[in-house]
Specification:
Blueprint (H helix, E strand, L loop, with lengths): L1 H16 L2 E4 L3 E7 L2 E5 L4 E4 L4 E7 L3 E4 L3 E4 L5 E12 L2 H8 L3 H21 L3 H5 L3 H16 L4 E12 L5 H72 L1 H16 L17 H4 L3
Antiparallel strand pairs: 1-4, 2-3, 2-5, 6-8, 7-8, 8-9
Helix pairs in contact: 3-5, 6-7
Length: about 280
């Protein structure tokens, strides 16, 4: 008897467990009966069902889809590599279950082409400058609106699309032209700096040359002044010596003249033997 009661109690407990389900915060759920959707959009909390019914729960929080970089053409037929990230969530659990069997991986695989096609259309109608400038926010807003129209069939709402990076392909002519322009700008800056440096060097050199000429002129003036003072002093000394003994002064001057004339060992001096210049050599007595 007790075993029968225990079996009945266990069956009741099992029946009670299979008759309730809990939806956590951030989740939603649908109720299935033999594979057919009976009800959807359950809020977080405790809910009841029949034992043969099945509750399928979905994460209703924001999901992230990161797309690899792909090449797109602008309205100017210029190549750009764009990678983006999509923020999406489940908006209609019933459609989400029927379209992708409730699998997030399949949902992202269906969602990626929708966003990429919208991105291609948006970039094809804009110039390169608009794609990389502040107009990019308008591009993503338009893309979200158009992509949501197609994503409704999946039971998905696209909340936001953000472009992570816009690159120019390595072999792109645009990239080469950008490099050439950058090189030209850098060359202009370098030429300008070089010209300023040469101008400053010439200015410094000119100032140094002017100061050199000034110093030389001042030194020459001082030298001439000293030489003049020396000559005057020498003339004064010579005059004083001449006044004291004219013959000795004449003899001394002749010796100086001899020393100046016979400085070189192989020098030749041709004079008349009776020349006054040789007077002291001839009359050595």
């Amino acid at each position: 008897m007790r075993s029968i009661i225990g079996i009945i109690l266990a069956a009741i407990v099992l029946l009670a467990i299979n008759s309730v389900f809990i939806v956590k915060e951030g989740q939603t759920s649908i109720l299935l009966q033999f594979g057919r959707i009976l009800e959807s959009g359950f809020k977080p909390g405790l809910h009841f069902k029949l034992p043969y019914q099945q509750a399928v729960r979905f994460d209703q929080r924001l999901q992230t889809l990161e797309a690899a970089a792909e090449r797109y053409l602008t309205s100017e037929k210029k190549d750009v590599n764009v990678d983006f990230v999509v923020k999406w969530r489940i908006a209609d659990p019933s459609k989400f279950y029927t379209s992708v069997a409730g699998e997030e991986a399949r949902a992202q695989a269906r969602l990626a082409p929708i966003v990429k096609d919208g991105m291609r259309t948006a970039i094809n109608t804009r110039t390169l400058q608009e794609v990389v400038s502040s107009a990019r926010s308008d591009l993503t807003q338009t893309l979200v609106q158009k992509a949501n129209l197609e994503a409704q069939n999946l039971g998905i709402e696209i909340v936001d699309v953000r472009i992570k990076r816009v690159d120019l392909p390595e072999e792109s002519s645009v990239l080469r032209s950008v490099y050439e322009r950058m090189r030209s700008e850098r060359k202009q800056v370098a030429d300008s700096l070089r010209a300023e440096g040469n101008e400053a060097a010439e200015r410094i050199q000119a100032d140094a040359d002017r100061q050199t000429q000034v110093l030389k002129a001042e030194a020459y003036r001082e030298a001439q002044k000293a030489r003049g003072e020396g000559d005057a002093k020498a003339a004064e000394v010579y005059a004083s010596a001449y006044g004291k003994d004219a013959d000795f002064y004449a003899f001394y001057r002749s010796l100086e003249a001899y020393r100046e004339s016979f400085q070189t060992s192989n020098g030749v001096l041709m004079l008349d033997s009776k020349s006054e210049f040789l007077r002291y050599l001839q009359d050595s007595k």
